[in-house]
Design brief:
Elements: E1 2-10, E2 14-15, E3 22-23, E4 28-29, E5 34-37, E6 40-41, E7 59-63, H1 67-74, E8 90-92, E9 105-108, E10 111-118, H2 124-129, H3 134-141, E11 146-152, E12 154-156, E13 161-166, H4 174-181, H5 190-196, H6 204-217
Parallel strand pairs: 7-8
Antiparallel strand pairs: 1-4, 1-8, 1-13, 2-3, 5-6, 5-12, 7-11, 9-10, 9-13, 10-11
Helix pairs in contact: 5-6
Pfam families: MOSC
GO molecular function: catalytic activity; molybdenum ion binding; pyridoxal phosphate binding
Domain MOSC: 28-165
Length: 220
């Protein structure tokens, strides 16, 4: 499985839609090669490092495949004219939450990255689009995007290849994982909650989330 990278995007922290709240959700395409390190792309920033960025959220990938659906829902807002509307660092066509799995390892340009979790949306998506319901629709439809941790540093630029090199957990599609841990399916999937305990590549914050759901529903 491989696909061409449509855009590599970075953003800097700035006031958010005219408010004092800082954010770096506004990402812009970068035409030159960008260094990929343990904390993400060189030149990319995060305003609140307690919930964004870090080892398990070094690089954010959002499928361009979803943009047409969002245009139909939101009435073709200008944000969707170009990649970056969801704060993504990587934009592609052909990969989505149904065919990408937790733990998938990809060659991203010359870097090696590993899928660590689906993206859990926050209120800033609604604010970014200037309308309510975007965050809720991300949760409901599983159009989440996902995060990579960086296993081997390298460089990436637009039109490089993103190539799958290893899939150790083929049963854990990101849509299924998100449904279990965020989408309200945990109560009906106790066996999956137990099985996820044995998947060490899950992001640390989601391991904590799994443990809380186990305690809540007595799954272990």
């Amino acid at each position: 499985m491989q696909t061409e990278i449509l855009a590599v995007l970075c953003g800097q922290v700035r006031p958010f839609r005219g408010d004092d709240e800082p954010s770096a959700i506004g990402k812009l395409p970068v035409v030159h090669a960008v260094a990929v390190g343990p904390l993400g792309l060189a030149g990319d920033e995060q305003a609140d490092r307690t919930v964004h960025g870090g080892i398990d959220k070094a690089v954010h990938h959002y499928p361009a495949d979803h943009y047409d659906w969002w245009r139909g829902l939101l009435g073709n807002p200008p944000l969707l004219d170009n990649p970056g509307a969801f704060g993504e660092n990587i934009s592609t066509i052909g990969l989505d939450e149904t065919n990408v799995c937790l733990g998938d390892r990809f060659r991203l340009g010359s870097a090696l990255v590993e899928v660590s979790q689906a993206r859990q949306p926050c209120w800033k998506l609604d604010h970014h689009f200037g309308t309510k319901g975007v965050m809720a629709q991300v949760v409901q439809t599983r159009r989440t995007g996902w995060y990579y941790r960086v296993l081997e540093p390298g460089q990436v630029r637009a039109h490089d290849l993103l190539e799958l090199v290893e899939r150790p957990y083929p049963d854990w599609s990101l849509a299924s994982l998100f449904g279990l841990l965020v989408g309200g399916e945990a109560k009906d999937r106790p066996a999956d909650l137990r099985a996820l305990r044995d998947v060490p590549v899950l992001a640390e914050t989601w391991k904590i989330r799994r443990a809380k759901l186990v305690e809540q529903y007595g799954a272990d």
